[in-house]
Amino acid sequence: MTSVVAPRPTSESARLRDYAEAAIAAMPTEQVVLVGHSAGGVVASEIARLAPERVAGFLAVSAIVPPAGGSFVSAMPAPNRWVLGAAMRFAGTRPPESAIRKNLASGLDGEIVDRLISDFTPEPQAYYRDHLSPGTWSAPRGYVMSTTDKELPPALQKRFAANLGGEWTRELTTGHVPMLEDPAGLATAITAFVDTLPRKTTGPE
Q1: Rounded CA gap, 111 and 129, in Å?
Q2: Number of Cβ within a 10 Å radius of residue 143
Q3: Is position 5 within any domain?
Q4: Is 26 contained in some domain?
Q5: Residues near 65 by Cβ (< 8 Å), separated by ≥ 6?
Q6: Domain CATH number, residue 142
Q7: pLDDT in tens, 127-181
Q8: pLDDT class for 202, splitting at 50, 70, 90?
Q9: Which residue, 55, 81, 119, 204, is most buried by CB atoms nearer than 10 A?
Q10: CA-based angle 113:44:133, to the nearest 5?
Q11: What is the pTM of this model?
Q12: What is the span of the domain harbouring residue 37?
Protein backbone atom coordinates (compact mmCIF):
# COMPACT_ATOMS: atom_id res chain seq x y z
CA MET A 1 0.00 0.00 0.00
CA THR A 2 1.56 3.27 -1.14
CA SER A 3 0.96 6.44 0.88
CA VAL A 4 1.36 9.93 -0.58
CA VAL A 5 1.08 13.29 1.18
CA ALA A 6 -0.77 15.75 -1.01
CA PRO A 7 1.08 18.99 -1.88
CA ARG A 8 -0.36 22.29 -0.71
CA PRO A 9 -0.40 25.71 -2.40
CA THR A 10 1.99 28.28 -0.95
CA SER A 11 0.15 31.41 -2.07
CA GLU A 12 -1.40 33.50 0.71
CA SER A 13 -4.39 34.04 -1.57
CA ALA A 14 -5.01 30.33 -2.25
CA ARG A 15 -8.64 29.19 -2.15
CA LEU A 16 -10.06 25.90 -0.94
CA ARG A 17 -10.42 24.76 -4.54
CA ASP A 18 -6.71 25.45 -5.14
CA TYR A 19 -5.82 23.02 -2.35
CA ALA A 20 -8.08 20.35 -3.81
CA GLU A 21 -6.82 20.84 -7.36
CA ALA A 22 -3.18 20.64 -6.21
CA ALA A 23 -3.92 17.27 -4.62
CA ILE A 24 -5.83 16.00 -7.65
CA ALA A 25 -2.96 16.97 -9.96
CA ALA A 26 -0.56 14.91 -7.81
CA MET A 27 -2.74 11.79 -7.69
CA PRO A 28 -1.72 8.64 -9.55
CA THR A 29 -3.90 7.62 -12.47
CA GLU A 30 -5.51 4.85 -10.42
CA GLN A 31 -8.22 5.50 -7.88
CA VAL A 32 -7.06 6.53 -4.42
CA VAL A 33 -8.31 6.44 -0.84
CA LEU A 34 -8.46 9.92 0.67
CA VAL A 35 -7.37 10.21 4.30
CA GLY A 36 -8.26 13.64 5.68
CA HIS A 37 -7.22 14.81 9.16
CA SER A 38 -8.60 17.84 11.01
CA ALA A 39 -9.19 20.72 8.55
CA GLY A 40 -7.90 18.39 5.83
CA GLY A 41 -11.34 16.80 5.95
CA VAL A 42 -12.68 19.89 4.19
CA VAL A 43 -10.07 19.58 1.43
CA ALA A 44 -10.77 15.87 1.03
CA SER A 45 -14.50 16.65 0.79
CA GLU A 46 -13.76 19.13 -2.00
CA ILE A 47 -11.57 16.59 -3.83
CA ALA A 48 -14.37 14.02 -3.69
CA ARG A 49 -16.74 16.52 -5.28
CA LEU A 50 -14.36 17.73 -7.97
CA ALA A 51 -13.06 14.29 -8.99
CA PRO A 52 -15.46 11.61 -7.73
CA GLU A 53 -14.28 9.12 -10.34
CA ARG A 54 -10.77 9.24 -8.84
CA VAL A 55 -11.86 8.41 -5.28
CA ALA A 56 -12.19 4.81 -4.11
CA GLY A 57 -12.83 5.74 -0.47
CA PHE A 58 -12.64 8.57 2.05
CA LEU A 59 -11.44 8.08 5.63
CA ALA A 60 -11.79 11.08 7.95
CA VAL A 61 -9.49 11.16 11.00
CA SER A 62 -10.74 13.49 13.77
CA ALA A 63 -11.71 15.69 10.83
CA ILE A 64 -14.03 18.58 10.07
CA VAL A 65 -16.52 17.43 7.42
CA PRO A 66 -19.04 20.14 6.46
CA PRO A 67 -22.45 19.24 5.08
CA ALA A 68 -23.03 19.78 1.36
CA GLY A 69 -22.38 23.41 0.47
CA GLY A 70 -20.82 24.17 3.84
CA SER A 71 -17.40 25.44 4.91
CA PHE A 72 -15.03 24.87 7.82
CA VAL A 73 -16.45 27.87 9.66
CA SER A 74 -20.13 27.22 8.87
CA ALA A 75 -19.77 23.58 9.98
CA MET A 76 -19.04 24.67 13.55
CA PRO A 77 -21.99 24.94 15.95
CA ALA A 78 -23.23 28.35 17.03
CA PRO A 79 -21.91 30.43 18.73
CA ASN A 80 -18.49 28.88 18.01
CA ARG A 81 -18.64 29.69 14.32
CA TRP A 82 -19.35 33.36 15.00
CA VAL A 83 -16.49 33.62 17.51
CA LEU A 84 -14.16 31.73 15.17
CA GLY A 85 -15.04 33.92 12.20
CA ALA A 86 -14.43 37.11 14.17
CA ALA A 87 -11.19 35.83 15.70
CA MET A 88 -9.75 34.93 12.29
CA ARG A 89 -10.78 38.30 10.88
CA PHE A 90 -8.91 40.23 13.54
CA ALA A 91 -6.10 37.88 14.62
CA GLY A 92 -5.44 35.71 11.57
CA THR A 93 -5.56 31.94 11.32
CA ARG A 94 -2.59 31.03 13.52
CA PRO A 95 -3.82 30.10 17.01
CA PRO A 96 -1.90 31.34 20.07
CA GLU A 97 0.92 29.08 21.24
CA SER A 98 -0.95 28.48 24.50
CA ALA A 99 -3.97 27.17 22.57
CA ILE A 100 -1.79 24.83 20.50
CA ARG A 101 -0.20 23.41 23.65
CA LYS A 102 -3.51 23.02 25.48
CA ASN A 103 -5.74 21.69 22.70
CA LEU A 104 -4.06 20.69 19.44
CA ALA A 105 -1.02 19.12 21.12
CA SER A 106 -2.80 17.57 24.08
CA GLY A 107 -1.39 14.12 24.82
CA LEU A 108 1.98 14.70 23.18
CA ASP A 109 5.44 14.88 24.73
CA GLY A 110 7.18 18.24 25.19
CA GLU A 111 9.76 17.87 22.41
CA ILE A 112 7.10 16.89 19.89
CA VAL A 113 4.91 19.80 21.02
CA ASP A 114 7.77 22.25 20.49
CA ARG A 115 8.34 20.87 16.99
CA LEU A 116 4.61 21.07 16.23
CA ILE A 117 4.54 24.73 17.25
CA SER A 118 7.68 25.66 15.30
CA ASP A 119 6.42 23.88 12.15
CA PHE A 120 2.84 25.17 12.34
CA THR A 121 1.89 26.90 9.09
CA PRO A 122 -1.29 29.01 9.09
CA GLU A 123 -3.58 28.68 6.10
CA PRO A 124 -5.25 31.55 4.22
CA GLN A 125 -8.65 32.81 5.39
CA ALA A 126 -10.31 31.33 2.30
CA TYR A 127 -9.21 27.84 3.38
CA TYR A 128 -11.66 28.11 6.27
CA ARG A 129 -14.35 30.32 4.73
CA ASP A 130 -14.80 28.88 1.21
CA HIS A 131 -17.82 26.66 0.73
CA LEU A 132 -17.66 23.22 -0.85
CA SER A 133 -18.31 22.99 -4.58
CA PRO A 134 -21.57 21.44 -5.82
CA GLY A 135 -21.44 17.78 -6.68
CA THR A 136 -22.04 14.32 -5.30
CA TRP A 137 -19.90 11.23 -4.87
CA SER A 138 -20.64 7.66 -3.89
CA ALA A 139 -17.36 6.13 -2.67
CA PRO A 140 -17.29 4.25 0.67
CA ARG A 141 -16.45 6.42 3.65
CA GLY A 142 -15.39 5.99 7.28
CA TYR A 143 -14.46 8.01 10.35
CA VAL A 144 -11.73 7.53 12.98
CA MET A 145 -12.57 9.29 16.25
CA SER A 146 -9.94 10.48 18.75
CA THR A 147 -11.74 10.06 22.06
CA THR A 148 -9.61 12.34 24.29
CA ASP A 149 -9.47 15.14 21.72
CA LYS A 150 -9.52 18.66 23.25
CA GLU A 151 -9.29 20.42 19.87
CA LEU A 152 -12.27 18.64 18.33
CA PRO A 153 -14.39 17.06 21.09
CA PRO A 154 -15.92 13.62 20.40
CA ALA A 155 -19.47 15.04 20.31
CA LEU A 156 -18.44 17.34 17.47
CA GLN A 157 -16.61 14.52 15.71
CA LYS A 158 -19.84 12.50 15.78
CA ARG A 159 -21.58 15.40 14.08
CA PHE A 160 -18.95 15.45 11.32
CA ALA A 161 -19.08 11.67 10.97
CA ALA A 162 -22.83 11.98 10.39
CA ASN A 163 -22.18 14.67 7.75
CA LEU A 164 -19.77 12.31 6.01
CA GLY A 165 -22.09 9.34 6.13
CA GLY A 166 -21.01 5.71 6.00
CA GLU A 167 -21.13 3.09 8.71
CA TRP A 168 -17.42 2.29 9.17
CA THR A 169 -15.97 3.82 12.37
CA ARG A 170 -13.04 3.27 14.71
CA GLU A 171 -12.00 4.92 17.98
CA LEU A 172 -8.49 5.75 19.15
CA THR A 173 -7.77 6.83 22.73
CA THR A 174 -5.71 9.85 21.69
CA GLY A 175 -5.83 13.60 21.36
CA HIS A 176 -6.19 15.48 18.11
CA VAL A 177 -3.06 14.19 16.38
CA PRO A 178 -3.18 10.37 16.58
CA MET A 179 -0.53 10.08 13.87
CA LEU A 180 1.96 11.42 16.45
CA GLU A 181 0.47 9.98 19.64
CA ASP A 182 -0.43 6.49 18.37
CA PRO A 183 0.94 6.04 14.83
CA ALA A 184 0.66 2.26 14.95
CA GLY A 185 -2.98 2.43 16.02
CA LEU A 186 -3.84 4.87 13.26
CA ALA A 187 -1.98 2.81 10.67
CA THR A 188 -3.97 -0.24 11.75
CA ALA A 189 -7.24 1.70 11.43
CA ILE A 190 -6.35 2.95 7.95
CA THR A 191 -5.39 -0.54 6.82
CA ALA A 192 -8.62 -1.97 8.22
CA PHE A 193 -10.66 0.60 6.29
CA VAL A 194 -8.76 0.01 3.05
CA ASP A 195 -9.27 -3.75 3.47
CA THR A 196 -13.04 -3.22 3.31
CA LEU A 197 -12.80 -1.66 -0.17
CA PRO A 198 -12.84 -3.37 -3.57
CA ARG A 199 -9.40 -4.57 -4.57
CA LYS A 200 -8.85 -1.96 -7.30
CA THR A 201 -7.40 0.73 -5.01
CA THR A 202 -3.78 1.86 -4.72
CA GLY A 203 -3.84 2.99 -1.10
CA PRO A 204 -4.24 6.28 0.75
CA GLU A 205 -3.63 9.66 -0.85
Answers
A1: 32
A2: 27
A3: no
A4: yes
A5: 36, 41, 42, 45, 75, 143, 160, 161, 163, 164
A6: 3.40.50.1820
A7: 999 999 999 999 999 999 999 999 999 999 999 999 999 899 999 999 999 999 9
A8: very low
A9: 55
A10: 130
A11: 0.91
A12: 16-195
